[in-house]
Amino acid sequence: MIAAQRAPRRPQPLNALHWSTMPALPTSWFTLGLALCAALPPLLMLLLALWPQREAGPGTPDRPRLWRRFRRVCTLALLLALGQLLLIVLQPLLAPQAAAEFKVLSQPWMQTSLLSATLALLVQLLGTVIAAFSSRYLEGEARQGRYAAALAGVLAAVHLLLLADHWLPLILAWALVGVVLERLLCFYASRPFARLAAHKKRLADRLADVLLLAAAGLAWQAVGSGSFEALRQALQAGALNESLSLQLSAVLLVLAVMLRSALLPVHGWLIQVMEAPTPVSALLHAGVVNLGGVVLVRFAPLLEQAPLARGLLVVAGLATALLAGLVMLTRISIKVRLAWSTVAQMGFMLMECGLGLYTLAALHLIGHSLYKAHAFLSASEAVREARLRALRPSPRASAASLWLAPLLSVALVAGLALALQPAAWPWWWSGVLALAWAPMLWWSDRESALTRLVAALPMLAALALAALLLHGLPLGLQDRPFEALGPLVLAGMAGLYLGLALLQRRPEGLSGWRRWSYAGFYLDEIYTRLTLRLWPTRWTPAQAPHWRGASTSLATRQP
User: How far apart are CA 116 and CA 178, in angstroms?
Assistant: First the structure.
């Protein structure tokens, strides 16, 4: 009797894959090897940077040679990351005979996916650009070798975090990112506020490490393994509905991410790192601070069944986005405004994760990284543009445009969403996007409304189309909208729009609120005092007596 041969299964399209049902594309040894190779060049660069340098002159190390080596190694890592991404994209399209050559194995500690490979390529691209900028920015500075070593260490740790498929390497890699980044933040050790920012971040990181360890212990006890694959299988079996440990683990994970992502009220260190070199600010704002969104997307199946954790993310993220957005409007310094913008964007991104809009959160992460890297590395141009705008202050928006702009924006965004992709996102998210983009349609009493609308409506339509098209990219993620809190987010955005409208027409009525906003609502002062009380340290240089006195009475005690 001849056994019936089973027909070969037709591979699913890439956009139908979801890592809660399939661990983000099965990983072959070759694919995982490429991913590990992309993390090895930064480690090699770390060793080269610490290696004694040949003297180029009397007492002057050969730093140009160091940075040439750094750029070459970064380019190699960039090519390896690109090869990893191409292999993952092309693997489902290979013929069955060619695909069989790749031995697919389940790795308990590491995994690679389309999203993680894309983020690895993004991180290495930013690292290469920042390294090239640093070689010019730090020309003539001492301790460039240590700077290059710390930069390489951050890139290597981020790569390992993107590969982690187990609690232990995830916690270790994230802790290593914070420890090595502290060396970059304190590159100018004589600057007191740089030392204070590093100390405040150190406390937030250690608290986050404790919370992550507790979350890992609870999940490990409930599942019986620290592997994320075992956690996914347990969640598919409905273990979260019966386990209080997993619910608590999700809450602790969310709290740890909030501490790492500089949400209010622990945001102050992100503002004060402006004392660090500009490329360090670009690295922090464009890459490191976004890791919280990466971790939340990785734990999407856990969040989907933990409403308390999701609610905490939405409320904290919405409050941070609204308050930080208002503070940003009151600041004059370009870099400080960019820093407050990052705080607001982190709140918005974590809010998207809490709402279950994981695809939008991933796209937001990528877009924010590219924008902030460009904004910080071109800060000098931004200063010149700000001075030009100050010479030609923009007139106030007309009263008719303030109420007509949101109506037109909502009609345009909702109409395009319903016409092109009805299931792209919930109805209330169309309202959130429309209110965020509505100020583009404002016109003043000095210009024609028709001229403004003819110029602005196509730009708004292009933004909506770009969001819809990018949302359809096959990132392997599946959204789980949190319908219960969607109207709350829409109401929060409506309140923010109302505040902006009042600032246009009745700025004198918000003078008291403006003073509180300029002070950051005094949240950082409270957190600073608490930090220095819980973990006293000397954050002022001992050789600068003029800093001593009342301004340092909070922090001059040794632990």
Answer: 20
